[in-house]
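Progress report, Aim 2. The chain analyzed during this reporting quarter is listed below.
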Amino acid sequence: MDDSSSEIAPGPTPVDQCESGSDSPRRSLRLLVWLTIGHGVEHFGRGGLILISPHIREALALSEVAFGGLATAQSAANGVANVPAGILTDMYRRRVAWLLGASMFLVGTGYLIVGVSPWYWLIIMSVSVIGFGTSLWHAPAFGTLAANYPERRGFALSTHLTGAQVGDTLSPIAIGAMLGGITIGFMSISWGGFEWRVVSALLFIPAAITGLAVVTRLKSAGDEAERNMTWSEYRSTAKRLLSNKLVLGIAAVGALRQAVHVSFFAFLVLYMTEELDYSPFVVGLHLALLTAAGIVSTPVMGIISDRYGRKPVIVVAMSLMALFIFLFLIFDSGLSMTAVIGILGLFFLSSLSIINAAAIDQVDKGSEGSGMALLFAGGAVVGAIAPIVAGFIYADEGFRGFVWFAGSLATAGAVLAALLPMKRPIRN
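Predicted structure tokens for the chain:
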């Protein structure tokens, strides 16, 4: 693959990125703040499924493969939704707020149905609704920020991702406490927690409130577009996007990272719950460690990538992710495992925004939504397969076999990123 694969001929577009990024800094900052907050709430709700899923497994007596099917259903629906999400984002940029609101309502509705469903297949459908709703957030939000911050794309996307990490950090602690209760002996405080179905239904509330907020507060989202894109214009930009080998290669790196993410979260929770016999609250604390450190590292990595390029940041982050996953072969319990989880959190999610920025650097102006959709769709497809494969491996080889599987995926992502001829960020 040569460097020429990253060059895209200019095409028709209704969006002028330079003007959107420089003429209205206050508006762009407002978008960044509100989208970051919304992303945090979305991930707070999405993280609930990770802690609830072992309870679903126990209540319905699911096998390891059926348990992996929960993550697969969410990821598969996530991938399917990326196609319409990308198209709608680019063709109706001035209606982005409505897409974001719909995203939140779908996530909330999915959890509400999970909370009342007695059947596995209905839960699978509800989890799919959650995955579909999640995708309706990513393409519009990331695409809008990429268009508004052409010169500081790494920083903007990383800041937006930091909101997700805040949600991912608070979610397991709060939901773990809701599920398992809290006992503080010296203060004579004891609370037994809620049943998992109640917790699932309660997650509808923050999602619905956030959906209303983004619809009313983000009416200016998409104003950088002078007009909506026509269908012929969209087909032209989409064709160039799908023929760009470098973008497809970067999407493959993102897919491998997503496969590690989806399967590692699911089976780490299962391992801590069933093998180490940790309470839901303790499991939640460990999951919080897996994302907390990234709150600091993610924006730093974004700034570094804006200045020195995306490739070295991605390669180093994916390599360190692989290294610390393999360390679970040695440190598989106790404080040493807790420390490894905390350090892994520096790189586990942080590379996502840099991978996204690397791809968006190469796409046409006005097709940022489809570029993001392509990345998330690829990640969702591979992420849908990985938990099923991981389920078979976990059933046959246990947690150590799963660690070899996840670490190998991360290593493959690092190698592929090192081979791709990524250019320095394109300045518009």
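The first helix runs from residue 17 to 22. The longest strand covers residues 182-184. These observations will guide the mutagenesis work planned for the next reporting period.
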